[in-house]
Design brief:
Layout (H helix, E strand, L loop, with lengths): L7 E8 L4 H13 E10 L5 H14 L7 E5 L2 H5 L29 H16 L3 E3 L15 H14 L6 E3 L7 H10 L22 H13 L15
Parallel strand pairs: 1-2, 1-4, 2-3, 4-5
Helix pairs in contact: 1-6, 6-7
Length: 236
């Protein structure tokens, strides 16, 4: 366990969607830094209200002060469309098993917009580290969750900012869902305050890509998911 005197004294920014991966990324940031700021984006996703609720519950858990919680409206992503998460004309699909095909839940270039705003805020706050819960194995092959994407983005930050030394950190990049869940338990992170479902806000649907990958992770970890589901995928 990192002692308080070993923690980095600089402020770190955590991108917190309200999902399980961003929770564990924030928990690791808390372990490594004395001070945290949380950033959340509303982009007209179908579960926008629930994700924002979870963001604030997680921020409360880590005692992030209100002045260091920033919620930004990027509804233009919904206006652009092209994703089942933001476009009412595209239904959220049921999980069909592992595939190399990029699913229509991919929001075009979303992480670039999110990270750009985080870097801008980091320059204002003087933060040196930005944590994002990107996972290469998960993500259903999303191009903005690949290791080479973050390598390229860090090069862009290095040459495109006035402040020096800002780095994007991806502590979960090579972890599996099972490992992420076990890490959450190890760090006493509040999994009950997270939301992964792409389609519903009252109870998780249980059959979209995100629900299925999350439930499979809990199954492999030998644990019960603390949130409620309408149904379970057939492989469980």
């Amino acid at each position: 366990m990192t002692s308080s005197k070993d923690k980095q004294s600089e402020l770190a920014i955590c991108l917190v969607s309200g999902g399980m991966d961003s929770l564990v990324s924030a928990a690791l940031a808390k372990q490594q830094n004395q001070h945290l700021a949380f950033l959340h984006l509303n982009y007209q996703q179908k579960t926008e209200r629930k994700e924002l609720e979870c963001f604030h519950k997680i921020a409360d858990h880590y005692q992030v002060p209100s002045e260091l919680r920033k919620v930004i409206d990027v509804s233009f992503l919904g206006q652009i469309g092209g994703s089942s998460l933001t476009d009412d004309g595209i239904d959220v699909k049921k999980y069909k098993g592992d595939t190399e095909e990029i699913p229509d839940s991919y929001v075009p270039f979303r992480n670039t917009h999110i990270l750009s705003m985080a870097v801008s805020w980091a320059e204002v706050l003087g933060a040196k580290h930005i944590y994002i819960g990107a996972v290469a194995e998960d993500s259903s092959g999303y191009p903005d969750c690949r290791p080479e994407y973050y390598e390229a983005f860090n090069r862009l930050v290095e040459v495109g900012t006035k402040a020096r030394g800002i780095k994007i950190k991806t502590p979960l990049l090579y972890m599996s869902k099972e490992q992420i869940i076990k890490k959450a338990v190890e760090l006493n992170a509040p999994l009950e305050h997270t939301w992964s479902c792409y389609a519903m806000e009252d109870k998780a649907c249980g059959v979209c890509d995100s629900c299925a990958l999350r439930l499979r992770g809990f199954e492999k970890a030998g644990m019960k998911d603390p949130i409620d589901y309408h149904q379970r995928p057939s492989f469980l």
